[in-house]
Amino acid sequence: MGATPEKGKQKHLVVFQPSGRRGYIDEGKTIKQASRELGEELEGICGEKATCGKCKVSIQSGFFARYGIESRMENLSPIEDSERKFFTKRQELDGYRLACVARIYGDVLVFVPEESRAGKQIVRKSITERAIELKPAVRKYYVELVPAALEDPRGDWERLQAELNSRFDLGQLIIDYQVLLGLQKVIRQGDWKVTVSVWMDREVIKVEPGLVPRGYGLAVDIDTTTVAGYLCDLTSDEVVATDAMMNPQVIYGEDVMTRITYAISKEDGLQSMNRAIVKGVNQMAGRVALQAGIKRRGILDLTVVGNTCMHHLFLSIDPQYLGRAPFPPSIHHSLDIKARDLGLKICPGAYVHVLPIEAGFVGADNVGLLIAEEPHKQDEMVLAIDIGTNGELVLGNREKLVSCSCATGPAFEGAHLKYGMRAVPGAIEKVEIDPDTKEVRFKVIGNAEWSTDLEAVAAKGICGSGIIDAIAQMFKAGILQRNGRLNTDLETPRLRVTGDGPKFVIAWADETSISQDIVICQDDVAAVQLAKGAMYAGAKLLMRRLAVDRLDKVILAGAFGTYIDKESAATIGLFPDCALENIYAVGNAAGDGARIALLNVDGRREASEVAREVEYIELTLESDFQRQFAQAMYLPHMKDTFPQLKHLLPKKVTG
Amino acid sequence: MGATPEKGKQKHLVVFQPSGRRGYIDEGKTIKQASRELGEELEGICGEKATCGKCKVSIQSGFFARYGIESRMENLSPIEDSERKFFTKRQELDGYRLACVARIYGDVLVFVPEESRAGKQIVRKSITERAIELKPAVRKYYVELVPAALEDPRGDWERLQAELNSRFDLGQLIIDYQVLLGLQKVIRQGDWKVTVSVWMDREVIKVEPGLVPRGYGLAVDIDTTTVAGYLCDLTSDEVVATDAMMNPQVIYGEDVMTRITYAISKEDGLQSMNRAIVKGVNQMAGRVALQAGIKRRGILDLTVVGNTCMHHLFLSIDPQYLGRAPFPPSIHHSLDIKARDLGLKICPGAYVHVLPIEAGFVGADNVGLLIAEEPHKQDEMVLAIDIGTNGELVLGNREKLVSCSCATGPAFEGAHLKYGMRAVPGAIEKVEIDPDTKEVRFKVIGNAEWSTDLEAVAAKGICGSGIIDAIAQMFKAGILQRNGRLNTDLETPRLRVTGDGPKFVIAWADETSISQDIVICQDDVAAVQLAKGAMYAGAKLLMRRLAVDRLDKVILAGAFGTYIDKESAATIGLFPDCALENIYAVGNAAGDGARIALLNVDGRREASEVAREVEYIELTLESDFQRQFAQAMYLPHMKDTFPQLKHLLPKKVTG
């Protein structure tokens, strides 16, 4: 991506985060110009006249070893008054600039905040339709009180408590201290008629004047790369608003290990990452509340799932011990913590329920998957794969469950590939290649049909599901060999061998909006091989642990679980042999688990029970992990056979 | 007190707080000089050379209607560099000055902070010896853990929890969120050996590395005028340190009604008063911790008693509804609130237990008295009187308890009397008058004997117990008539009639350190009559409610309960007839109650039960309160007879 610096011309390295796009840009160009050259999509509606303020970016200061870059504010033209009016004081301190104003005079690492990313409105963490029995932790009760009188000198709280007990059989209630502070006023505002929100039939967490029947809760899935939120009506099971965003911690590291390193090596590293995610969840809560037409403080309950590292960072717990043997987390159990103690700006008396974690990096997100998919209640041998920056696998049935985690890198999320991008409009999400002609058809997000119609959205890059399709199709068409090498003997203009290795053209420049050919290069294939190899090896070692040699069912979950083509996934060998009809893509099951825990307290109990039962396998300690991993890098595998998938695979593989 | 301004000379009104001493002072004099003229005692050891910094005072700004004073910093000479070095930034903002430097050029209200008050080291809120069964809410447990290993990947908390459960049968424990945040570090600091503090066998509130056997708790009694604290060892029942201070809220009003008015009329009135008491309790916690040689954060439990208004202000609950019919409090029940949520800087995970309140102004202090004295477990008809700025009475036995409260004003605490002062060295605490010669003997705090020896501490004023003695003795000697008027017909140089009414000299100028005669004037007598009349009327109305006509036992409790002479109290008619041997002075029973609740959880339960059982009588609504009050203003009463106290009273009364 981008060009390497040419002699005689002053160029500087520019890296955009969280996309990871980078390249060398001529001195004096604006960040906005750089973004166009590198395929980074920034908002902006004023034609770069510094009048709309939509292209805000934040310059990260310091030395970033990952990119070999010393990024400094001084590497840009000085801030101008025309920019300042768009920034808060805080933003100015955080190094905010307008991309259309700031000119490049040195290397810079540019963070693009959620609101400045073009295409942000389409999010692919959609919800799965699930029937969830309604049994929420927070319930609302309306009561009419007898006003205080000289003959009845009870305190306001005792009056309310007695009424709740006699009308709704809520004995032994306590009241949140902050709610108590406002109780007198609310009771009198409501003319002695109030609506009370009670948590777990135990504690009053909110009192509102008059009758306020509806109550809302937010289920949040904090993945390493993305965060998804589902605002639910607690009195129906309706999802009233959804939202997703990049995890704002990505600027501190793209995977769990780099974030742990950041927490260890920087004095306030943990605090910075904690503040970032808390702020992010607060902003998300604000957005879903706005969508639903309620106040953020009207969110009465919040559940959280996430892998162990995300869990620790969200709770502001030092993750350093997660990073080295014997990898003990601080806590496994679920937690109920006051929203205000976590800095969350929902209803201040509300509790945040953090689902329990398993072990290692197999966290509450995987517990969410378990209570959503319930392999522990099935007879079949189920392999559940949660595909994200960090892959998590669970294998088992009602007898026993084992789990492991593997570092897959962000390839499946479209990041760090030559033309990789997130699953937003303009991304190629499906690919078909004719095995004979090697001609390519593709579908772009934003278009209903497979089309290259001029009216349609043009391609800008390729997202996770698109890359899996492309690799699978290239393999089936003989463009890729079993070891992942591009077959340079083929006679097709789409295959191109240049100084930096062979490439295969998926989209010609005139089919794109970036006026460049969109290609898959050898490095892109290798990134996918590494990711899928780790997954496959993990699955194999789990099967060995349970002494099983076949899978009855495979569940694909995670950020792009809904969008992945299961045939393509099977073709590249993401998991061992399984009949195609028994492979299910279930979307964001972790988020579904958070939603189940939000709407049903039995789900919380089940989560705690199942989390305790799962046995965790530390892959890197297994005797022949390296050998298994190396074999699994092959397409679909170096040695294993796939009798149930025979019809999908090239003959020479299945033979 | 002090002189009224004379013509031709520029004088300014100076008021000292919390004593209430005031007077007109010549322009240009220092505050220290003013303090001497008005009998206010300020610290200072450098001879007013601005080198010891001990005479710090704080100038209150604004208009204070109570004193008719517009107090401003500009009414003093400008602050000098010699002063500044003694102040923190915060103190400078709070209007701090050195009294020996600041000169008076206008009216000022001067607050004398605790540390600048001379004689502060002697505090009369002493503790009563009580055997308290040790059953504290917070217990400490020492455990040695098996370090984490690959074969045992439990979380740190689960490891600790399992060990506490197996060793001490502590199932279902939870852990404070803040403690969880530090758990990993503490466990490793202690090399997997830790001491755990557990609250109510339910929640871990602190974890310390290694073995730390001792634990401490603080019992706090917040009275309208004074605050007392007792630091107790939770592993023995030893009181390891005590402290007392003026309630820092006195600058906002001297009794509960003026504080309620302040909360209503000032926008941040409630917040100011809450901050003042929280800061005061924090400072007190710091002082007792220092005495005991521990850290303030080592205080693991804290119990609080106080009247309803003090209770509300401590909790930052708006007291406005307490001030008008039907006077409902916000809450009666006891509360357990995290110290950090209240802004208390003891162990951050600790809970503060606030004892339950009864009704009206009969608060947790009275509940403290009840669990300390246990009238609800007795057959005798007991009248318990808690004497403070606000008087609280409970009458009854195991059958039934009734209570009431009455505004007594601060006379019993030595405030707002012509030569009144707190019970500190130099205060006359006992008085005897020869009925024939009308000659006076008195005892001064700081001296072991009744003495006017030149070596002894000279008198500076008269405190609460001294004034009650004086009134009783003057009455018995015929110097006071039954209606409280000074008998001006007597032939004694101690009786002096001047333009502002008659006075009786208790100490001659040469027996004092203030070179003035210490006198009791007609207004002083009236203040005591009002206070004791309210108490007596309250007791009568409680007796009427229970339909009893005699008392078996009278308990005198409160700030000066230990020091009051029960004969004198009976002589002036503080309560209805009762045999002298059945009158007990028990000291600070409210504080004892706080100590019982600190050391014994059954005491907390008993407090909740007894608080619910007491019936509260609103005196001002009783049909003939005014008539009862008027009759009770007489010495000892207009109509009632005192057959059991016959031997104490002048013949014409008992006849």
> Which protein chains make the most extensive interface, counting residues with beta carbons within 8 Å of the other chain's beta carbons?
A-B, 43 and 44 residues
Mean pLDDT of chain A: 88
The largest β sheet of chain A comes out as: 6 strands, mixed
How large, in whole angstroms, is the Cα Rg of chain A?
27 Å
Q: Can you tell me the overall shape of chain A?
A: globular
CATH topology (fold) name of the largest domain in chain A:
Nucleotidyltransferase, domain 5
**Oligomerization state:** homodimer
Give the C-level CATH assignment of the largest domain in chain A: Alpha Beta
Helix content of chain A: 25-40%
Q: What is the rounded distance between the termini of chain A? A: 39 Å
CATH level-two architecture of the largest domain in chain A: 2-Layer Sandwich
Main sheet of chain A: which strands, in order across? 14-13-12-15-17-16
The counted number of beta strands of chain A is 29
- Continuous helix count of chain A: 16
SSE-based structural type of chain A: alpha/beta
CATH H-level name of the largest domain in chain A... which superfamily? Answer: Domain of unknown function (DUF4445)
Low-confidence stretches of chain A: 1-6, 120-126
Proportion of strand residues of chain A:
15-25%
What is the number of domains of chain A? 4
Please explain how this structure is put together:
Two copies of one chain form a homodimer. Chain A is of the alpha/beta class and 655 residues long. Chain A folds into four domains: 11-116, Ubiquitin-like (UB roll) (Roll), CATH 3.10.20; 119-354, Nucleotidyltransferase, domain 5, CATH 3.30.420.480; 373-410 and 528-654, Nucleotidyltransferase, domain 5 (2-Layer Sandwich), CATH 3.30.420; 413-521, no CATH class. In chain A, 27% of the residues lie in helices and 24% in strands. In chain A, the strands form seven sheets. A six-stranded mixed β-sheet of chain A has the order 14-13-12-15-17-16, with helices on both faces. A six-stranded mixed β-sheet of chain A has the order 28-27-18-19-20-29, sandwiched between helices. A five-stranded mixed β-sheet of chain A has the order 2-1-7-3-6. In chain A, α9 (364-373) packs across α13 (589-599), α9 crosses α14 and α10 packs across α12. The first copy, chain A, is globular. The first copy, chain A, starts with 10 loop residues before the first strand and ends with a helix. Chains A and B meet through α4, α5 and β16 of A and α4, α5 and β16 of B.
